Amino acid sequence: MPPLVEVSSSDPHERGRQYGEQARERVAASIDFYRDEFERKSDLAWEDVCRQTPQWLPYIEEYAPELLDEVRGIAEGAGVRLEEILALNGRGELRKGNPFERPEGCTAFSLSQEATSDGHVYCGQNWDWRVGTKASVVILRVVQPPKPTIVMHVEAGQVGRHGANSAGIGLSANGLEAPFGFGPGIPQPYIRRRILDSPDMATALKAVYTSRPALCTNLILTHRDGFSIDLETTPARHGVMYPKNGLLVHANAFLAHVPVQIEDSYRPSSVDSLFRAPRLERALRIARAGDARTAIAAGLSDHFSHPNGVCTHPDPRDGGRWETLLSSYADLTTGEVMVADGNPCEEPYEPLPCNLYE
Question: Helix (H, G, I), strand (E, B), or coil: what is residue 37?
C-alpha cells in the first residue's frame, strides 16, 4: 500500500504544510524523476521548466485561490521551491519541451445500482503512467471542514487527481491526447481538486464548466445516489456521455465527440484504448449477475493484448516506459476504498484504513 498521508485543517496553507512535511521524501522523488525526464527527453533543464510555471498563477488565483495557498504550504513543508510544486501540478500542461508524447493511459469506469447485483454504486480505474513515478505515489486524505473530506491517489506534491469524498462523489480520470490547447489555462490537478471539494453534483459540474483547462482530459463523475456522467473536456467545448444500463467506461480515445480542431486528422496515438474500454465494459457486465467486486477486479486485471492491456505492464518494445501504477475503486454506497499497489493481476486489493463517511 502506498503511504497514507493524512492532513486536517480548515486553513489551506496549514493543510499544505502538513502534506509537504509528511510526503517530503516522495516529493523529492517526484522532482528527481521529472528533472531527469525533461533533461533526457527534451534537453530542457529543470530550471527552464520552473521558469515556465508562473504562467499559471493568475489563472489559479482566479479559479481556486485557496489551492494556491495550499500549494505554497506544500512547498514550505517539503522544503522545496514554489515553482517546483507548480511544475508537479502542471507537468502535463507544459508546452515547451514536454517529453510526454502520450497522455496518462488509465481505464476508468462507473457502475450504478442497476448494474450491480448488490445494488451498490462503484467507481474506479487503473492509473497508468510512466515507469519510475511509482516511488512518488501517495494516498492523500484531506480533512477540511466545512468542505467534504477527500481520499485521493496522487503523485506527491499534487493537490488533486482521482478519488472520492464524504459527500458521496467519486472522480475517475484519464488523459485525452489532442494536438491543440496547451495555451493559457488551468492545469488539471486544480480542476480535479475542485470537483472533489464539492458537496453536491451541481457544484462538482460547475467546477468543470467554469474552468478553462489548458489541455484535453476525460472525467467520470459518479454520485452514490446512482448518477454518473462522462465529460470529454477540452480547452474549447466538452463532450458528454451518460451510462448505458448503469455502466460507463472510458479509456483514452474520444468517444462522445471529436473536437473540430482535429476532426479532419484525428488518430488516437494510444491505440490500445480502442480495445481497453470495450474489454473492461464486457467484464463489468457480469456485475449485474455475480459479485460486483470480483467483476471489477477481473476487469481491471484484463490482459488482452498483453502487455498493453487494461492491466498495463512495461513493454520492452518501447523501452518499458508505461505501467499500471495503482488500481483502485470506491464503493460509494459503503464508503470503502480498495487499492491494489501496482498491477492488480499481481497485487491484491486491500481496503484503506479509513472510510469515506467516517
Answer: helix
Residue with cell 464486457: 282
DSSP state letters, 14-34: HHHHHHHHHTHHHHHHHHHHH
Q: Nearest Cα to 219, choosing from 271, 176, 166?
A: 176
Please compute, for residue 260, the number of CA atoms within 13 A of its CA located in the half-sphere on the CB side. Answer: 3
In a domain, 83, yes or no: no
Domain with 253 in it = 4-9+102-351
What's the structural domain count of the chain?
Answer: 1
CATH number of the domain residue 150 falls in = 3.60.60.10
- 54 part of a folded domain: no
- pLDDT confidence tier of residue 219, bands split at 50, 70 and 90: very high
CB neighbours of residue 117 within 10 Å: 13
Q: Is the pLDDT of residue 125 over 90?
A: yes
C-beta separation of 294 from 121 below 8 A = no
What global pTM score does this model have? 0.95
Residue 100: which of 176, 38, 184 has the closest Cα?
Answer: 38
